[in-house]
Amino acid sequence: MTEAPSPALPRFAGEGVGCATLLRSLLTLLAAAAGGALFWWLHIPLPWMLGAMAATAALAWNDHARVPPPARPAALVLLGLGLGQTFTPPVIAAVTLALPWLILAAVLSIAAGVAMAKPLARLADTDAKTGYFAAVPGGVIVMAVLAQRAGASVPAVTLAQTIRVMTVVVLVPPLITWLAPHGNAGAFLAERPDVVLSGLALLLAAGLAVALVLRKFDVANPWMLGPCAMVILLSGLGWLPSGVPLWMIDAAQVGMGASLGLRMNRRFVLSSRRLALSSLVSTVLLSVLLALIAVGLAALSGLPPAAAILGMAPGGMPEMTITAKALEVGVPLVLGFHLVRQVACNLLVGPAWTLARRLGVF
Asked: What is the C-alpha to C-alpha distance for residues 87 and 236, in angstroms, rounded to an integer?
């Protein structure tokens, strides 16, 4: 097998600031918001993220898009605050009781990804190591870091994982809408707290401060996890000063969608067409396989089926929790699924590759 050519990474803005750059950023964000509004008007699931992603991707294809570097961190901070408020004491207790199932789901998700590694490597005509780290659903950043440590092709893994996340974002919301009712989250659904402007301002400032501190310690995804952990703690203690308004969550969706769409640079995608197409095909197969496993796991455990499908979906943690928030299918449980899988990937993916090589599996 020959290694797939390393795709050129998309040029993210920030390489010089001027009037033209600022204007391009403003126009891109306006286009992203307009795309979200259009998808909302058309009643498309997850409209603000999908619409923003589509509009930005259309601009990015010919290098006409620019998303300001702070857009994604700001969106993740808002998302973390919004997700954390869903963790009331009863919900925290329910997620804790479900922990054994979350661990089992993480192991099964990784195993399903490993099973897809050989077919992906053959379809993409890449080496086994790159196929392995491209196939396991552990998040774009996490898998790129693990691939670098193992000596796999980081650009190829980044391309495959990016296409996987974007495919899942498009594929899973309609699947959830079809397979499971909205709001059927049982003990994992909490009432939205009231919004108090002074308390909201305090939350925003504190969430940003916590994220900046965690960033100094190289914590994975500090922008989302820091504010989220802070609000979970405050909510669990009954000290939450305010809820997060829905329009802020929608704004976070637009920021996330624009950041995803920006990656669809023509050079980034077409520099390795075979790998891109192979990633698309393998993602669809993996999504269907994990959805079936999730339905079975939900039947055995009594967990809400829609939350289990989102929790086991091979998408990124921010994207899948936004989907859960939009569809009201048990945000804390979905976040728990993805947190456990992220930890499991960090602990298991590298050693599993070493063991598989020694056993001659790859």
From this structure: 7
CA dihedral sign of residues 27, 32, 35, 36? negative
178-to-174, 181, 251 alpha-carbon distances in Å: 6, 8, 26
Percent of the chain past pLDDT 90, that is, above it, reads 41
Of how many residues is the chain composed? 362
Burial of 235: CB neighbours in 10 Å, binned 0-12, 13-18, 19+: buried
Token pair listed for 8: 């050129």
pLDDT at position 267: 79
Measure the N-to-C terminal CA separation of the chain; round to a whole number of Å: 12
In contact, 81 and 203? CB cutoff 8 Å: yes
Phi then psi for residue 157, to 5 deg, are -65, -40
- Give the tens place of pLDDT for each residue, 140-187: 877 887 888 888 888 888 889 988 988 998 888 877 777 655 555 556
Measured CA to CA, the distance from residue 204 to residue 21 in angstroms comes to 28
Exposed/middle/buried for residue 158 (C-beta within 10 Å: 0-12, 13-18, 19+): buried
Q: What are the residue ranges of helices labelled H in the chain?
A: 19-41, 47-60, 71-84, 89-97, 99-124, 128-135, 140-150, 154-179, 197-216, 222-237, 246-262, 266-270, 273-301, 305-312, 317-327, 331-359
Give the helix ranges, DSSP H, for 196-330. Answer: 197-216, 222-237, 246-262, 266-270, 273-301, 305-312, 317-327
- Closest among 107, 115, 134, 108 to 7, alpha carbons compared: 134
